Amino acid sequence: MIPAKKYICLTLVTLVTATAFANSVKVFPSVALTAKTKDGTEWWPVVGIGKKRPLIASDKGLEEVTARAIRCQRRMVVNDIYVERYSIEKSRTEDRVFVNVEIKSSVPLENAFAMILYTPEGSRNPKGRWTKMRPLTGGVQTMKLQFLPKGIPETGWTLHFFHGGKELYDPARTDLKDAMIGDAYRLYLTRHIQNADSGDANPVPFMMPISQADPELLPKGTEPYLVKVKIKIAKSGKVTEHTIMDELSNELAQHISQTVDGWWFLPRIKAGQPVATTVVMPLKLR
């Protein structure tokens, strides 16, 4: 007996136009953070703060470096997570810069950190001092932050918050721009792969724009109406082939087929790498 093929079954999806989500993803001027490996030979992205030093993601995995210094280079950054600021108080002694700030993050976060950024005279890129933070709760909270003062000027510096190496934007900024769909996709794809770590993850619908079917094309009645579609998803997340698994009128089948090939998924992850796969997805037409 030939065994039946097994497909991944995704959860129910209602067909609607769904591109507005990208408006929550912002592009803004920020900095890329890097630090040197323990042997001091290479620079790698900073993804957090370890027990006492910056944490980098190198080709050897996560590594806590030996030096405190973080290199800052100006970059445009894409993110959908923000931190609102309600008040800020600053003070200074010979051995500390103190910042008390009332904030609210858009989502709860562990392992966020704060940085003071300043640009020395004649330098193109800013420099920074960092400090660890308590977990962000998603509610209003007061953070009492302390920074080592070396290099920080009396005035002209700014406070920034980071998580996973990316800045969490301030929604009050005037230089925020809505991200393009491609920028948003790369952001979510990176998280999708990171969340899988070196393991597996099922594909996730990312963008599935389609208009509602003409009610005249649907069976009479008011009860929910579902149609199953088998979809082949490339490791790029693009749909390469689809098959409607239910008997439909030519008009309704054409309505679905016109846009299914333009759908976009976060691909299946196997052993930490994107792979092609086939899924069966129920679509709610009514």
Give me the secondary-structure topology.
Elements: E1 8-9, E2 13-14, E3 26-36, E4 43-49, E5 54-58, E6 61-64, E7 71-79, E8 83-92, E9 97-105, E10 113-118, E11 127-132, E12 140-147, E13 158-163, E14 166-168, E15 177-178, H1 181-196, E16 204-207, E17 226-233, E18 239-244, H2 250-260, E19 264-266, E20 268-270, E21 273-275, E22 277-284
Parallel strand pairs: 1-22, 2-22
Antiparallel strand pairs: 3-4, 3-7, 3-15, 4-5, 5-6, 8-9, 9-12, 10-11, 10-13, 13-14, 16-19, 17-18, 17-22, 20-21
Q: Percent of residues in beta strands? A: 35-45%
Number of helices: 2
Q: Spans of 5+ residues with little confidence (pLDDT < 50)?
A: 12-20
Q: What is the averaged pLDDT score?
A: 88
- Give the SSE string: EEEEEEEEEEEEEEEHEEEHEEEE
Structural class: mainly beta
Termini Cα gap: 38 Å
Q: What is the C-alpha radius of gyration, as a whole number of Å?
A: 24 Å
Number of strands: 22
* Biggest sheet architecture: 6 strands, antiparallel
Measured as a percent range, the helix fraction is: under 10%
Shape: elongated
In short, what is this structure?
The chain is mostly beta strands and 286 residues long. It has helices at residues 181-196, 250-260; strands spanning 8-9, 13-14, 26-36, 43-49, 54-58, 61-64, 71-79, 83-92, 97-105, 113-118, 127-132, 140-147, 158-163, 166-168, 177-178, 204-207, 226-233, 239-244, 264-266, 268-270, 273-275, 277-284. Helix content is 9%, strand content 44%.
